[in-house]
Amino acid sequence: MAMPKQIVQVKQDTTEARLAGMTRPDGAGWSNEARDAAIARVRDMGLPHGRDEYWRFTKPADLVASDAPKAAVFETDEAPLWDDRDRLKVVFVDGVFDAEASDDLSLEGLSIERLSQVTGADIHWAKELYGTLEARGQDPVDRPLAALNTAYATDGVVIHVTGRVSKPVNLIYHHKSEASDAFLHHLVKLEEGAEMTLLETGPGAARLNTVLEVEVPDTARFHHVRVQGRDHERRAATAIFTRLGKESTFKSFTLTMNGRLTRNECVIELTGDDAVAHVAGACVGDGTAFHHDDTVFITHDAVNCESRQVFKKVLRNGATGVFQGKILVKADAQKTDGYQISQSLLLDEDSQFLAKPELEIYADDVICSHGSTTGAIDEEALYYLRSRGVPTDEATDLLVLAFLGEALDEIEDEALAEGIHERLVGWLSRHKS
Amino acid sequence: MLEIKNLHVELEEEDKRILNGVDLTVEDGKVHAIMGPNGSGKSTLSYVLSGKDGYEVTEGQAMLDGADLLAMDVEERAAAGLFLAFQYPVEIPGVGNMTFLRTAVNAQRKARGEEEMSAGEFLKVIRAKAKDLKIDADMLKRPVNVGFSGGEKKRNEILQMAMLEPKMCILDETDSGLDVDAMKLVADGVNALREEGRGFLVITHYQRLLNHIKPDVVHIMAEGRIVKTGGPELALEVENNGYAGILAEVA
Ligand SMILES: Nc1ncnc2c1ncn2[C@@H]1O[C@H](COP(=O)(O)OP(=O)(O)OP(=O)(O)O)[C@@H](O)[C@H]1O
Ligand SMILES: [Mg+2]
């Protein structure tokens, strides 16, 4: 459907206004080429507008505005997540690398560097990847905020994985300034047969824009677990772009608690036979200000691949959840196994869940299923638990955790999953109806 | 122990009367049985006592050890010592049987101002009781009642009863769906709990269960009230002749 002229004009004006306020980091070196191309993409698409097909459920204004809306810093006395887990920590405060708080950037099986430090080099492997998967992911659906990130990212990590890495790399995002507007761009390139786990934790900034491009070649395995920090007023637009080779695996899980506005996009392309991609999310939101959006696009372009989307949302007191998930099966992608489920548990009548599940299938020998449900707490189950003496609020928490459990089950590493579970228990204890 | 007086109950949603003045007293240490035709209101009575939504008490009262049951929330009734073994136990995906039972035991203890049971102690106790009921470790770990056979669900109800040690136990057709051996296990479980300070109300259609759990008193319920009360011989009469005779006699 063609966009009315005046809206095209509005989009163009807001885009130019935003671009005018952006500055490219110093020493962008070889990345300048990709950044120029990304700016051209942004101009071409225009920044998101509520009339865009994939922004009908989520108002993009706060993500598009020239200045990041202020977001108070959330003080917490909770113990850090996965505290006793051996990890390589890379800390960013409001999008700025914190060397003191970070570990030594060295780990057997991979090389890890900072984007801002490698772009100045004459030649670097990252040049091939920077902005490449993001650009591929713009078709057929526009993702202008990701292109904006490629154009202006100030830092990030670039990881080259050559072996099986013994411990996870944890990107830790602190939010300390009320008005921070951060752009981080991460690249992960695995070699064949290599394997790593990447963790991302924390709110990051008043407004955080991240892009993660992951190249997963034949037989490589990539695991990703992310916990978006609890600051009530933070906003975030994140995008993951990945391409999978033969017999490779990509698994990503995200926990979202609080936040005023979160848009998580994930674009997956299965290009090698027998590849497996799982993407899952659990989200809990309380209050009318909470708006969370998962937008996933999975393209099957090889034989006998499996994809799985499991998204669960618990919403209360007027919170809003959005799920837009698409499985595209190309004509040559026979024996595709595509599974998608998005469910919300609404704890009151003011909360809402908006879902747009899509299947587009051109191959004939495929199994694809998708289901989307919105429901309330199961009254029979609640009565049963209460009849054994469990108080209503505790019984409700048990049922909420059971509901989210299906998404948590997607995390392979049990200790990481346990940490996520504890976080949810903590959240529930602070958010009673 | 349990005192039900002139209890009248209607459905909240539709204009339908189900209980029409139930009078029933279960004394401390006694086992009472209720029999009665399908649809006579036996399960409804048990639901109303446990506090299920959807029913309106229009008249009468129900007391547990002198406390007004009908004024309490569902969980308060449980903490006060009321337990209902359901005719149709609910499946709860995602909630582990053990987690659920430990939460329940400790919630009740907390509500009564008692000390909570430690994880270790709980494990020890539940293992022993599960063994008595031939419930294996795998069933304890599985989500509550999910994928359990009909008989396994009933045994799981009795396990919960054994763990919670309630004062007043209502068993709604716990024998239905049980094979002969399982019925014996369940009856042994109930008999082990028979003691001063505890009462039972056993709803059943069959004499067989009552061979194992010998009732002190048998009631016949029809059309929402207790129409006849007697000793164990009343159950035999039902088994041999059905309800026709009894109902004609009281009509
Ligand atoms: N929620 C409800 N909605 C409609 N009718 C109901 C409801 N609950 C109970 N009834 C009706 O009330 C009557 C009593 O039902 P109840 O389940 O108490 O009988 P029962 O004596 O336990 O029967 P059974 O021996 O078959 O278990 C039945 O006619 C039943 O259909
Ligand atoms: Mg019944």
From TrEMBL, chain A:
Residues 178-403 form the SUF system FeS cluster assembly SufBD core domain. InterPro entries: Fe-S_cluster_assembly_SufBD, SUF_FeS_clus_asmbl_SufBD_core, SUF_FeS_clus_asmbl_SufBD_sf, SUF_FeS_clus_asmbl_SufD, SufBD_N. Signal peptide: none annotated. It comes from the Bacteria. Residues 32-165 form the SUF system FeS cluster assembly SufBD N-terminal domain. GO terms for biological process: iron-sulfur cluster assembly. It holds the Pfam family SufBD_N. Belongs to the iron-sulfur cluster assembly SufBD family. This is Fe-S cluster assembly protein SufD. It comes from Thalassorhabdomicrobium marinisediminis.
From TrEMBL, chain B:
The keyword Flavoprotein does not apply. Coiled coil: none annotated. Signal peptide: none annotated. Residues 2-248 form the ABC transporter domain. GO terms for molecular function: ATP binding; ATP hydrolysis activity. Pfam families: ABC_tran. SUPFAM superfamilies: P-loop containing nucleoside triphosphate hydrolases. Keywords: ATP-binding, Nucleotide-binding. InterPro entries: AAA+_ATPase, ABC_transporter-like_ATP-bd, ABC_transporter-like_CS, FeS-cluster_ATPase_SufC, P-loop_NTPase. Belongs to the ABC transporter superfamily. Ycf16 family. This is Fe-S cluster assembly ATPase SufC. The lineage of its organism: Bacteria, Pseudomonadati, Pseudomonadota, Alphaproteobacteria, Rhodobacterales. The gene is sufC.
